Amino acid sequence: MMKPGKLPPKLLQQLLDKISFAEPSVLLGPKIGEDAAVLNTTSSKYLVVTTDPITFATDKIGWYVVNINANDIAVMGGDPKWLLITLLLPQTINKKTIDDIFSQIIDTASNLGITLVGGHTEITPNIISPIAVGTLIGEVSKNHVVRTQDAKPKDAIILTKKIALEGTSIIAREFPKKLKSLGIGKDIIQKAKKFISYPGISVIKEANIARDFKYVHSMHDPTEGGLSTALIELAIASNTGLMIDAKKIQIAPESKQICKALNINPMGLLSSGCLIITTPQKNSCELIKNFKSHNIESYEIGHLTANPNEYKWVSTSGIEDMPIFENDELTKCFEAHT
């Protein structure tokens, strides 16, 4: 039986290897570590296309589906433009909840300058909670495409914000009673719930700043599987290795407390809201200063190496293999709840 979450990288690679790219307009197709496809059209810009589902979160699912897909366009250097949504809804849902989901989608898209152009909605038997799937199309200047595969050995790895913001917020929203039973205070739960808005899970602002910094080689958006999975995806895409300083990775006190109570490793927990950027070591400080001038927290956590398939980090125990997560740590909460 397969576990919930992303497919294992080896299986996914086997599936992707079956695809051939005879169509010359496909400049970047499906590949581990890349957040969106890039298509060449007759216009002066490339199209950037992505699709992502929201399956974990039921609260604010419409808000989530727009932001998560918009992040994928932004980290490719693009501007999100046109959105299609597929909503699969359980038979137990009521009209008010449906209206709330639609309002979240429309309002969030409008705030980000995105136009909702179509989709599909249906009541679906055999599901117990809403599922939202977004397909988002954006545009990117032909000299501004940022690809994960363009990261290079010796690049500094910069991270914005703190890890596990998204996962912590979902846990606080979906399982507040469980957290209270484990001794987590109401104030901690309330603050964690707000992480999706502040500091926020959108990376559009920082991605645009990085896009305009001419020395940036790559960007990647940590989602399912957390920071550890995203870093390994980055290394796979660019055929490099990793050397990470675990002590430099930042996590909010609320996330630490919640993860400890649930025996969850924050390195493998949903982390939309932070952004991975690689740039030559000599340009790292300048980029960090650039982010600081825009009130965005950022810090260097390590570098890429010329040793593919070697993913190391320095912890209090010395140099070790980085943890690999077959499934996002959030699945532990949902599996325990069923």
Task: Give me the secondary-structure topology.
Layout: H1 9-16, E1 26-28, E2 37-40, E3 45-54, H2 61-74, E4 79-89, H3 95-111, E5 115-123, E6 131-141, E7 156-160, H4 165-174, H5 176-181, H6 186-193, H7 204-211, E8 218-220, H8 226-238, E9 241-245, H9 253-262, E10 276-279, H10 284-293, E11 298-305, E12 311-315, E13 318-321, H11 330-337
Parallel strand pairs: 4-5, 9-12
Antiparallel strand pairs: 1-2, 2-3, 3-6, 4-6, 7-10, 7-11, 8-10, 9-11, 12-13
Helix pairs in contact: 2-3, 4-6, 4-9
Describe the structure.
It is a single chain. The protein is of the alpha+beta class and 338 residues long. The chain folds into 2 domains: 19-141, PurM-like, N-terminal domain (60s Ribosomal Protein L30, Chain: A); 148-337, Phosphoribosyl-aminoimidazole Synthetase, Chain A, domain 2. The protein is built from 11 helices and 13 strands. The protein has helices at residues 9-16, 61-74, 95-111, 165-174, 176-181, 186-193, 204-211, 226-238, 253-262, 284-293, 330-337, and strands at residues 26-28, 37-40, 45-54, 79-89, 115-123, 131-141, 156-160, 218-220, 241-245, 276-279, 298-305, 311-315, 318-321. The strands form 2 sheets. Strands 8-10-7-11-9-12-13 form a 7-stranded mixed β-sheet, sandwiched between helices. Strands 1-2-3-6-4-5 form a 6-stranded mixed β-sheet, with helices on one face. The radius of gyration is 19 Å and the shape is globular.
Descriptive terms for the model:
single chain, 338 residues, alpha+beta, 60s Ribosomal Protein L30, Chain: A, Phosphoribosyl-aminoimidazole Synthetase, Chain A, domain 2, 2 domains, seven-stranded mixed β-sheet, six-stranded mixed β-sheet, 11 helices, globular
